[in-house]
Specification:
- The protein has three helices and four strands.
- Helix 1 runs parallel beside helix 2.
- The longest helix is centred in the middle third of the chain and has 12 residues.
- The protein is globular.
Length: about 100
Amino acid sequence: MLLQINIIDTPGHVDFTIEVEGALRVLDGAILVLCSVGGVQSQSITVDRQMRRYDVPRLAFINKLDRMGADPWKVLNQVHLRSMEVIVDNTTVAYVPCTQF
């Protein structure tokens, strides 16, 4: 059986929301990249909502851990507080009452 993986990199800027939505319609899965310094941005929340709308399986990747001010635990807390869901250590799923990630 032949497996083909296509990687679609979409811009994170709000001006490209329509393009991101178009890409989400064809995805089998997604990785939401979050910055360990800047934390969860409003556009990240928008993209998360779009992924939920299209039932796209996803995981979050926290990058820039080597930068000064990096705090991945702060990012995980923001994910939780902003009504997103996160899987920690492959076992724990943390939910916020209103919605899911």
